[in-house]
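Encoded backbone
================
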Amino acid sequence: MTTLAADAILQAATELLTEAKALDDVTVRKIALRVGTSHTAINYHFGNRDRLLRRVMERTYLRFNADRLTRLQTARFRAHPNHPSVADVLDAFLEPSVRWASDPSTGYRIFRHFDLVYKMSSDTAVSDPNLFEVNVHRQFIEALCRAAPWLTEEETGWRLFAIVGMRHLAINDPVRGQMLAGDLFDLRDPEALLAHLVKAGEALFEQPRAGSVRRLSVKAPRAV
């Protein structure tokens, strides 16, 4: 449980990360000035700037995941007593990413800034990979397995992995997207971009003709 002072520091750091164009713009001094406190208060509550930024990232990621899981649950309610379709599951998975990336007020920049912190830090309290909740992805794999039961769990996981990469490039490398997809790609039109991402992802889950699938023979991934 955080104190009121720690909450104020977290809020100030969140605001600065959301506003900043570069990570170097978010300093302990600026955070302290935003709160009206001292450097030592930040160190007392969080240890250092990067640990503070990790806490900000955790809170942001929890909010982001809650958004995705709420959409997944809504899709389940709509489909009951059946299971939601592949398209509905992918929409729940992808829509928050596209919406957050297209709206600066959502805090999507926090993900980009923390990616630099994560890569550069040698502090295990900052670079611990368990931050990114793989268990949330597992819930989408389970939903996709029900929507496309002709695929194994491992094959479904690989397809979601490909979709994560497609989403990442669409949001973070729009120039390449424009080169490859032309007028079909426009991050300024998030609804159209989402529709194209869902359609491309849905194609990966189409039921193959009998005998046309080569099953994965590698060791199954470790449970998470």
